[in-house]
Amino acid sequence: MLLSLSNAPRDYAWGSPTLLAALEGREPSGAPEAEVWFGDHPGDPADVEDGTTLDAVTGGTLPYLLKLLAAADPLSIQVHPTVAQARDGWAREAGLASDDPHRNYRDANHKPELIVALSDRFEALGGLRPVADSLRLIEALGSSRGVTALRERLSGEGDVLRDAIAWLLSGTAQPEVDEIIAAVSSATSDEFAAELDAVRAIAERNPGDPGVVVALLMNFIVLRRGEGIFLRAGLLHAYVSGLGVEIMAASDNVLRGGLTPKHIDVPELLSVLDTTPGTVPVLRPADSGSVTSYPVEVTDFALRRVALDGTPVTIDAAGPTIVLGTGGDVSIEGADAVARALPVGKAVFATADETQLVLSGRGEAFVAQPGSVVE
């Protein structure tokens, strides 16, 4: 059986007032619209066409959460734990109320994520830049006391990125943070022009936030439509702007490191953070064929993009499957061979009796389901 899903946008402050409305071809609501959740997460289960919610159908057992995400302002710089770290943290915080603002762990699961751009440009910060590259960027900032202090920390021995981030977020480095942000405002660099522009824009929205300087140490990533990045456990990241399809493990565990008024636990963040520097690979759409798969390192979820040109495409429904319409005029049919429209911004859930789905029309859809075993 196929069940139509919808949900109301969540009005987080960083959300875009226009991107989701433009995708769906409707008038903006006037409020920020940040995320639309298609899943059975207890925080906001999707609405089913019969008036129930998806958790009543699944029993809350979906291993993933699928979202539309629309950012006008940067999200918090954050990192997610491994399963082992989440279980340990969940046990340590057993005495805290579920809504305690100082709670770091909302469940005992990891939260790897995949984001695929729907807008023509999607900006993100992902992973820590190699130290030698960041030192070249810092050369463009001059020689104020704060810039010099950061340069010296990154030029030391050992895990210099962990040391620098701990210092920046310690609360004792605010004078140096302010000097570094001031230096960024007027810095120029041919090599790092895009990075400096991005950090300047982040600083304008988050004046005086130490996370601005942490962002200076991160890779700035620009995705084009159909491109994606996978964000594994321990990887520092933040979405900056744009519209995308996001899928993640069914968890709400977030350790924050800046650009937010929410709780920041620096020691816990550092205990989870992987400071190994390097780039985050961009996953690109297929050069040929209708279906693009985005390989990930986890079994919680798998995501495919289907680009339809009028020729029907058959998809195996392996496990609980959600199909999300993201463009054009697409229809979907299951075992009953009755085609139903898949409106842009809406989704369909395939119950366990469905083994194959046929997508037809001209447009785009994303297919979410559990992943396969990682070898």
UniProtKB/TrEMBL annotation:
Enzyme class label: isomerase
Any one GO CC term of the record: cytosol
This protein's UniProt keywords: Isomerase, Metal-binding, Zinc
Keyword presence, Transmembrane: no
Cited SUPFAM superfamilies: RmlC-like cupins
Limits of the Phosphomannose isomerase type I catalytic domain: 2-130
Superkingdom classification of source: Bacteria
Gene Ontology annotations of biological process type: carbohydrate metabolic process; GDP-mannose biosynthetic process
EC number: 5.3.1.8
Cofactor binding annotation: Binds 1 zinc ion per subunit.
Enzyme active site: R256
Molecular function as annotated in GO: mannose-6-phosphate isomerase activity; zinc ion binding
UniProt family annotation: Belongs to the mannose-6-phosphate isomerase type 1 family.
Database matches in NCBIfam families: manA
Protein name: mannose-6-phosphate isomerase
